[in-house]
Amino acid sequence: MTSSIASLGASPCYSLLLKQLIPSQSCLERVRGSHVSFLHSVGLQQASRFRNGVFERLDDSQKSVGAVGCVSSQMADVARSEGHGRRVSGRLESVVCHASRASSAAEPTINVEDFVEIGTIAETHGIYGELRVRSLTDFPQERFETPGTRWIKRILMGRPSITQVELVEGREIIGKQSSWLVTLEGFDTPEKASELQGATMLVRADDRPASLGEEEDYIPDLVGMDVIIEETKEKIGTIVDIHNSGASDLLRVQLTASKRGKDVLIWIPFVKDIVPVVDIEAKRVEIRPPEGLLDLNVPSEGLTRKEMRKEERKRKAIFSAIRKRLTALGQAHVLDGLTTGDETQRQALMDQLMTIDFGRLQQALQHAFGLLSSDSVAGELQPPPTIPQANWADFESWTNTKKYKKRPANSDNDTARWWFKGLQLVADGEVAVVVLAGGQATRLGPGGPPVKGMLELNLPEAKSLFEIQAERLLLVQELASQVYPEAAPQIPWIVLTSDATDAPTRAFFDEKEYFGLDESQVWFVKQDSLPCVDLEEGHNILLESPWKLAVAPTGNGGLFSALHAQNIVDRLSEEGVRYVQVYSVDNALVRVGDPVFFGYAHEKEADVGVKVVKRNSPDEAVGVVCLHKDSEENPTHEDLDTSSEDDSESDDTDMTRESSTSSYYGVLEYNEMTDTLRTAKEGDDLVYRAAHICVNLFSVDYLMKLANPKLELGFHTALKRIPFMKEDESGEWATHVPDQPNGIKLEQFIFDAFKHCDPEKVALLEVNRNEEFAPIKNASGEGIPDTAETARDMLLALQNRLSSTSPEAGQDGETNSSLLRAYICGI
Ligand SMILES: CC(=O)N[C@H]1[C@@H](OP(=O)(O)O)O[C@H](CO)[C@@H](O)[C@@H]1O
Hints:
This protein is α+β, with helices and mostly antiparallel strands.
């Protein structure tokens, strides 16, 4: 049968419906001509259905229903003539339910529920006030030709009104769609009759034809009935409505929630073959559904068919825009994979293409190459003025909390004062922490974990970086609640992930049960990725495979757009957070949630905090913090301050700015520093010696300001070795594993955000590198710096140094010294 249907030219989605609805080949033969024309006429644009007396345009999901209705209606006629059909007498005489009561001052109160609709009045006909009526009843002769009382429902002055009329006579007009011409008493001119155009004709519900046949059921009886599978006697749903499209009926059935997990409505043709039993007494129908019928209109993976089609259309539109864009950008080669491979592979490529912002890629490339060509580091640069130092040496005395807690602001020990102020901020829930963990850890080489934070350090008790950091967070929370016993702070820990690290990171946290933290305090935020490009002119996007673009996270500066895009800054602000510490996951000694840092920044009323250590050699792979004097066009903190000014004043402001320079803090990244700057010395010391250790702080107010699109960070180029695949001349795809940098990752750098802050509001803090900076950048090896081994050694060395001082036992009202020591050691 399927092939006969296909030969009728119906689309596959209609074929299934037809197959289910047409009970026999002979029926099929008889409906062939008409259903094809219907299906064509439904097309994709102009489907309509007749319901409640009006033609409604069908949306996509309803078209299949329209087809069911139509085909079903023709099939039902045929089936009936063959003895297969069911009839629902009065099924269209649906109870008036648009208004619960209708009354007017002149009329007695009438209960609309006492009526059923029998037709709609379309227009006047001829000069004697005849009215054309479209039937909504199975008894048109009786209703429109037999003289007697009828009722008219209209909306008068915005309210439903029901009036009694007398039918004088009526006759059927045979046409494409039958209708009746009726004459009503008192409406004998076209003008008078036209008052009734659009009205509904009613009869009293109790005026039910006595002639209901054995096979005929009444709509109010059907609605609410249980729908049972004949074979299994399983209840699958309830009839909620009956739909008619002329001469046949469809039961609208709501499937039981437990069966489908959701409110799902399906259509069941009301024909004897499919609904063999109608038991009015027991309020149930039994059905024999053809295979697949119950799955029609059932959402798949949470989407209804309509939603799925809508999604599909949207995808197509987006995809065609992507294709145009890629062609315009000279990157159409990334679409080559669509002509090869299997459906899943091609789909994967389409899915990926839809997630990439190619406009942003273009901007990033322009910015990055603009930056390279402008001698960005040649402007006026200065090392920062004297930087305060954190001194934890006398931390043992901090355990005497009474001394500091009362008047911490008066303490002349700076670090202790900052510590206590910071603890107070922690206790008051005013701080949060971000770990930058979106990097791909490529420098660690193969064989490492997929995510740097999962890297285990070979300590007496093996611990991953994430675990060490989580423990510090727990410790600082505990220390805060010891000093402020009424507080039980939970510092939000925001884990910045990327496409490359998100899934393994989440799985790791799950597996480790969040290291004892409360799950709700860990917020995963995924940053964007951008495609990697080659070094040739034109910068072609590199392909990891024909169906996958090589992409890389947008660098640690991607934090800001990710935080804003995911409303994290608003959330922090709503929760009362004022300061956020941001650090790179690869530092084994990082003091997570460091109260000293928070207290210091708070005291300085800073918007940006930057921890630095002394750079130990010209070759150390660290960025250096500098003060820039800049007159370039990029907006700085001064633009920020003026951006809110009135337009009328902006011209003057711009003129003033033209001749002025502004200073701001920035970091000269190690791979962008000239040799002269890198090696410049002042006596024995390096001139640029404030090494950026990627432990920074931002006020939430400042993060809010960074949401200004004018302040979006620019992009830098990171040259990398990126394995790729390429189609050779013979059309074969070959893998290339370069031994030299062959590609560019486009990255934003977190410290570029310092630029928009008034230098007065930037708080630099020098810390001891042996205590706070043990970066893990490289795979371990003889004489290789910054490895898991060197970091482990630093942790153990710190622990040894501290264990030479004996811990004090905690006393009432004092901080437990072992906790403080553990926090400082990190293990
Ligand atoms: C963009 C950025 O933040 N780069 C940081 C960051 O560089 P890496 O490329 O991740 O090693 O960590 C360094 C310290 O470990 C820091 O000195 C440098 O400035």
